[in-house]
Design brief:
225 residues, alpha/beta, Rossmann fold, 5-stranded parallel β-sheet, 7 helices, 5 strands, 37% helix
């Protein structure tokens, strides 16, 4: 999209990030998708991410290789069972599927990519309402990262000297319910059936239907009718 403002969009292959990509594209951004092969047990999401990037006509799609299994401490990156059939309606703890500092690491990579391609915007599908207790999905975290991004980069420093703000982190789903996200996806024309949110998919790549992510997704579709 010639002349459009560029944005880096974190794309996992799940429903939320797909909606963010479509949303920013509809806002007129030239969207460059960024996915991560970080040693996650649900690597099928990378296949879905590639499909979503193609479907939604991302200007580019890159996959960064990082090894978070080196640190483990999460059911997604270590030999720890993924919790199933939890009461996600009333769970307020930080679950074992939390990957230490994952969104901080992902956003840092997106920040580096943004500065390298001349983008001033990052999109991420964090959600503070229907989420599973992750501290890096809260608005306070996003605000703190955005401040850091404008302090810790050459582009941010130069913009500050001109009295401008360089980087903005877009979180269009932050205060939406999962049902609202489903509805938004349908309005944007996304084939949500090609996304996957499951933490523990089968070897064939099918969702387990019992992990926190599957339950929240199912509830969203159900509540959206």
């Amino acid at each position: 999209m010639s002349g459009a403002r560029r944005a880096v969009v974190l794309l996992s292959g799940g429903m939320d990030s797909a909606v963010v990509l479509a949303h920013l594209s509809a806002e007129g951004f030239e969207c460059h998708a960024l996915s991560f092969d970080y040693g996650q047990r649900h690597r099928v999401e990378l296949i879905r991410a590639a499909e979503v990037a193609l479907q939604l006509r991302a200007a580019s799609h890159r996959t960064a290789l990082i090894d978070l299994r080196a640190f483990g401490a999460s059911a997604l990156t270590a030999d720890i069972a993924v919790p199933k059939d939890r009461d996600v309606e009333h769970a307020h703890d930080i679950p074992i599927t939390y990957v230490p500092a994952r969104n901080t690491i992902f956003l840092a990579h997106a920040l580096a990519m943004a500065e390298s391609i001349g983008a001033r915007d990052i999109g991420i599908g964090v959600n503070a309402i229907d989420y599973s207790g992750y501290p890096d999905c809260r608005p306070e975290f996003i605000e703190a990262f955005e401040r850091m991004a404008n302090l810790a980069t050459r582009a941010g420093t130069e913009a500050t000297e001109r009295g401008e703000r360089w980087m903005r982190v877009h979180t269009p789903l932050l205060m939406l319910s999962k049902a609202d996200i489903v509805r938004r996806g349908r309005v944007l024309g996304i084939d949500l059936s090609r996304t996957i949110s499951c933490y523990d998919p089968t070897p064939a790549g099918d969702a387990c239907g019992h992990c926190d992510a599957c339950q929240l997704r199912e509830r969203g579709f159900r509540d959206a009718g």
